[in-house]
Amino acid sequence: MSAGSASARGGYAGRRWVGEAVLLCAICLFCVFPFYWMVTTSLKTQAIALESPPVWMFTPTLANYWEVLFEDRVGISLINSLIVAVCTTALSIGLGCPAAYALARFEFRGKQDLWFWFITNRFVSPVVLVFPVFLIARQIGLRDTHLALILMYLTFCLPIVIWICTDQFRSIPYDLDEAASLEGASQWRIFRSICLPLAMPGVAVSAIFSFIFSWNELLFAYILAPKAAKTAPAMAITFMEGYDVPYGKIMATATLIAVPVMVFALIVSRHLVRGLTMGAVK
Q: How many Cα atoms are found within 13 Å in the side-chain-facing hemisphere of 255?
């Protein structure tokens, strides 16, 4: 290979590397900029937030956070959201993992019909269910309670957990179950000590999806929990009254809503990548 050809190849590789770096930076900027704008707006006064063109250099203030946390009951709504999201996620994992294990490991009559029923539950539009669920909750005295939201969210999160975890359990070699059975392990011990730890990537992904849905859901929270059990997303939209739109308070509330999800995702991040790529390599 001539020196000129090698130099040309090196120049092409260098330009390609620069192009890929610029493209990645542009993608990162596109993804991160909305979050940056949300956080910076939450640190502005109403007058600065309404400036046109936008003000990039300003003195940050925490007044919006103080108001939404201690004057507008957003702190209480965040606690409500945390209670609902944690309980829904825990119940979804606690009920969904054994069901997914049974669907993956056992053969029984009506298995395919049961699997289809679980999956199709997630296809139902929430708008179709909100009015009958409202009537039922009011009739049995569950309106404006955490339990009403937990039970409602469970019907949407449980199919996700079963769907993801069933595929995860199916990817675990059945030889491990047989070997454990020969050693005298019970079926519950096999599930708890062998299969469940190996399926943790799928469990982590399904837990994140369940938590995010329960934390961010607005429609049922707004209808079923208007006062005592109001969640943070439902509280955020109450700031918009007529022509008065307090952008700083809305963005402060949105930031407070986004942070717990990010923290939860970081906690389970070591399982997240494996769970998102499961089944990609055989």
A: 21
Tokens 């069901």, residue? 99
pLDDT tens per residue across span 96-133: 999 888 888 888 787 788 878 877 777 777 788 888 88
Dihedral pair phi/psi, residue 244, rounded to 5°:
-90, 110
The SS3 assignment for 209 reads helix
CB atoms within 10 A of CB 248: 24
CA dist 185 → 55, 85, 172, 249 (Å): 66, 34, 17, 56
Q: DSSP assignment of 99-139, as one string? A: HHHHHHH---TTHHHHHHHHHHHTTS-HHHHHHHHHHHHHH
Rounded distance between C-alpha atoms, residue 282 and residue 278, angstroms = 9
pLDDT in tens, 201-222: 888 888 888 888 899 888 888 8
Tell me the whole-structure pTM to 2 decimals. Answer: 0.79
Residue 217 Ramachandran class (φ > 0 left, ψ -120 to 50 alpha, else beta): beta
